[in-house]
Amino acid sequence: MLTLGLIGTMILAGCGRTSDADESMTKLRIGVLPDESREILARRFEPMRAYLEATTGIPCELITPDSYETLLSRFIGGEIDFAYFGGYTFVVAREEIGAVPLVLRPEDRQFVSYCLVAGTSTATSVDDLAGARLAFGSKLSTSGHLMPRYFLDQEGVTPEKHFGEIRYTGSHDATARAVRDGEVDVGYANALIIDAMLRDGRLAEDDIRVLYETPPYTDYVWAVRPEISDDVKRDLTDAFLALDPERDDHHAILRAVDASAYFPAAPNEFDAIALTVERMAGFEDAR
Question: Which of 23, 33, 151, 270 is the most exposed place for a label (fewest CB within 10 A)?
């Protein structure tokens, strides 16, 4: 796994930084992590976009980049003002330009990944999957790559040595489909997204089986570029904190993004993730 500094250097090679203050913010450009298909992301986040626009009074544009790398590049380069990051992408943005975390869900402090196998698989442990085809999500995914790899390492398992093939699908729903369709034998994915896919019928109960879930860690967060004014930061934070799950309209907004509520993010919320990124540096040389 690349170090934070090297990741940032590679991403910055494709963009130019901007640091203009938001003295006359006429539009808030909101980028969301493409951890599912664009169609699903638009459906999930459009209610939040409309709510933020109505609550803050600032016109809001929803941007769904085509990759985790593109989200980072556009945020660092000043093309996105406010972003929904995973833990891994956030610590890179914080390292590079001082991204400021605003809010996260209670669920984000106890996040887990699922290890998925096909519904017909007879595997009972990772040991049974030696030589199998493994799918991670994006290389920059916290729940679809970083933390599953870290926990495998803690058990003495190096994916490049244990599995016969490793592929990166780019998103959690793509990983689930790859397992379901027999393109891979095992995959790691965001537990909340898999649960949502089972609820809404994108996955049938017998399509996949959760072999195990990882220990908990901290993941997703909403963060802004550092030059965004304190007034806008406050208005955005207040808008999230005002979401009341007891109100039908607010409940629909929260449910769409798998949130029970929001609370302020602490400055050191993702320090452990940053340490994990550094710890796992060099994984591609572990073959």
Answer: 23
